[in-house]
Amino acid sequence: MLNFIYKNQTEILFGKGQMSEITSRLPENAKVLLLFGGGSIKKNGVYDQAMSALADVDVIEFGGVEPNPTYETLMQAVATAKEHNVNFILAVGGGSVIDGAKFVAAAYNFAGEPWDILVKGAEFSNPLPIGAVLTLPATGSESNGNSVVTKKETSQKRAFSSPSVQPVFAVLDPEYTFSLPERQVSNGVVDAFVHVIEQYLTYPVNAPLQDRFAEGILQTLISEGPKALSEPQNYDVRANVMWSATMALNGLIGQGVPQDWSTHMIGHELTALYNLDHAQTLAIVLPALMHVQKEQKSIKIQQLGERVFGFNYSDEAEQIDKTIKAVQDFFEAMAVKTRLADYDLDEQAIDAVVNNLEKNELTTLGEHGDIDLAKVKQILALAL
Fold first, then answer.
1. So what's the architecture of 11-176 in CATH?
2. Facing residues of 147 across strands?
3. Phi and psi of 349, rounded to 5°?
4. How far apart are CA 182 and CA 282, in angstroms?
5. Residue 247 has pLDDT above 90, yes or no
6. Whole-angstrom distance, CA of residue 160 vs CA of residue 216
7. How far apart are alpha carbons 383 and 379 in whole angstroms?
8. How would residue 43 be classed by pLDDT, with cut points 50, 70 and 90?
9. Smaller CB count within 10 Å for the chain: N or C?
10. Distance of alpha carbon 199 from alpha carbon 183, whole angstroms
């Protein structure tokens, strides 16, 4: 096992009716920027519950954060926050809204060009504190310091991470997910699944507890994910999916083990260029990447097949191939297509992704740094 330092500062308020707890966790004389997305929270009752809980608090609203939050929109939110001199951000929505809140928090007191936080790793200080009300379980953003932002002007999707922008609390009420469209439910399950894979499917470092944590989350998503589509009002199913997505990327299962993230890096370029849903890009890239990297990932792919999918083929090659196919089949069962052609993309998309990776200086990906641009082409060609 590798060395690590681990702390998770987010207080989780899980279950029915937990929105009522948020006011006691705000700073004194709170002036809150309420950040949300396209307005679904005003249709499903979540907005009303939030405003009821904040009845005695000064609230400034900012809506319109996109599913892939854009720098341009978030800078408008920064301007609104500064204009009203807010001292807290409450993000109500899915991972995109919470990611956006983290960028707004970091940019609020930043003296330079805020895009540098994402592209140059520019240091920032004194970010605004954040609370989160999760309505779409997927990214784990409610209990980590990660943020991904897209700049429309340059078709760049970049990330930053800092514990200083991790939410101080997060409300996880499974009932808030009952009204989600099927597409968002499917995407959320696939996203959480791949988050686990990025931290698990590398190479062994004698960390059996982390492996078992990861395998338990994967098994739960495989079991409960399809039920979330067929039984949308099942509280227990939604609760298990929600908690699995949080546990997938709250930092715990990745401690002391190597991590990959190449599927995400390649997928980000597909989103930036063609506005595909984040989970759609992951479903396209991961099975093909597993094929190309099956020698480097051989031991863990076989372990995934045995412990998660129940395979026990005596031939290693068959064990690996069946496991990769099972991953792809799971994505398809969750109604997320796994081929570029399914999204009307062809060979031109491969060149565009490679060019963007080169422009963003992302040319050595993976846990070994051995996924170069030639391998990216190979991966995407397999995914046509």
1. 3-Layer(aba) Sandwich (3.40)
2. 160
3. -65, -35
4. 18
5. yes
6. 28
7. 6
8. confident
9. N
10. 25
Q: Give the pair of three-digit tokens for residue 220.
A: 């739960």
- Return the pLDDT at 94: 93
**If you average pLDDT over every residue of the chain, what do you get?**
96
- What's 27's DSSP letter? P
Q: Give the separation between CA 9 and CA 7, rounded to whole angstroms.
A: 6
Task: Name the residue with tokens 């705000």.
Answer: 26
User: What dihedral do alpha carbons 292, 294, 297, 303 form, nearest 10°?
Assistant: 140
Give the sign of the dihedral formed by CA 73, CA 78, CA 80, CA 81. Answer: positive
Other beta carbons less than 10 A from residue 58's beta carbon: 14
pLDDT at 315: 97
Within the chain, all domains assigned CATH 3.40.50.1970 are found at 11-176
Q: Mention the CATH class of domain 182-382.
A: mainly alpha
**What DSSP string runs through 127-159?**
PPPEEEEESS-SS-GGGS-EEEEEEGGGTEEEE
The pTM score is 0.93
| Bridge partners for 151 per DSSP | 156
Q: Provide the angle, in degrees to the nearest 10, between the axes of the packed helices 208-230 and 182-200.
A: 170
Task: Kindly give, in sequence order, each residue whose CB lies less than 8 Å from that of residue 310, ignoring residues fewer than 6 positions away.
Answer: none
Residue 40 banded pLDDT, cuts 50, 70, 90: confident
